[in-house]
Amino acid sequence: MKYSKATDYALHTMLFLSVVGPDKPLGVQLLADKFQVSPTYLSKILTKLVKAGMVESASGANGGYRLKRNWESVSFLDIIHAIEGTASLFDCSLDHGPECQVQQIVLEAEAKMETHLRSQTLGELAKRSSLLFKGGQMSSDEGTV
Amino acid sequence: MKYSKATDYALHTMLFLSVVGPDKPLGVQLLADKFQVSPTYLSKILTKLVKAGMVESASGANGGYRLKRNWESVSFLDIIHAIEGTASLFDCSLDHGPECQVQQIVLEAEAKMETHLRSQTLGELAKRSSLLFKGGQMSSDEGTV
DNA sequence: ATATTATAGACTCTTAATATCTATAATTCA
DNA sequence: TGAATTATAGATATTAAGAGTCTATAATAT
């Protein structure tokens, strides 16, 4: 069981967009260079983020992708759900009733994970990063997210 | 991202073996009937559980599978690891250092999930089930795990 | 108009999971 | 000893999902 590469790229892209800020749109070409991935592939990922309502796109020259107004409240879980869907980690394949104990326990575990992923918002991360920056502890490659 | 069917069968099998108790070995044929799955497929799963040290096997007539002595301390996480392996849910595919923030956060989330899965041991579940049983609240299909 | 950029669909490639079949080894019992 | 029973191992086939490419189309700025 693993998160997809698409999720990986989505999380990094969102983090990078939140560093850049919502003012300047970035083209997929630039983002693809940044993450060493093909532009057409990253396009599909970005389109999912647009459809999920967390990114805004604009065609034409000076177009590209930028965060939407609500960006600070977007959580890791939101991003993961946008890419992987919201299906749960476990579907009991046996045909006993809905009160399958195995199912219940695994879903409780999943809920713990989701609680943590929901608590990590882009706003919080940006705040944390800026604290680090002010404290002078930011690493040399500050462009890396 | 989903747990495999094999994990599903493994969890149910272990739970069922813990209801039966470690005294009487059960053949794969019986277990496969119970879970409506092919015996050869379930065999491979059981072999993994044997190799992980949580189940004991015996060939020949009256042979089969039974729990080992330590069965009460076996957790859901142990069983999942036996089937799925212990690799983490996330490997950042970018080549920035080991201190990838995305990686860290997802791994923290995974750790929360694992803590819960580790706390669910077969011993605890058996105890809980027997309380339910004594309290007369057990459902009609008490053979279902 | 033309260049730029996003969107959408078809398509291929690869990998992992699922599942089956067969042969072999170990053990019981008559 | 021999036959029946049961687990183990390996080869193989099938399917589904992820990863990635290519091309055509739509939207927009200059």
TrEMBL record, chains A, B:
One of its GO terms (molecular function) is DNA binding. InterPro entries: ArsR-like_HTH, Tscrpt_reg_Rrf2, WH-like_DNA-bd_sf, WH_DNA-bd_sf. It comes from the Bacteria. Keywords: DNA-binding. One of its GO terms (cellular component) is cytosol. It holds the Pfam family Rrf2. PANTHER family: RRF2 FAMILY PROTEIN (PTHR33221:SF9), WINGED HELIX-TURN-HELIX TRANSCRIPTIONAL REGULATOR, RRF2 FAMILY (PTHR33221). This is Rrf2 family transcriptional regulator. It comes from Paenibacillus whitsoniae.
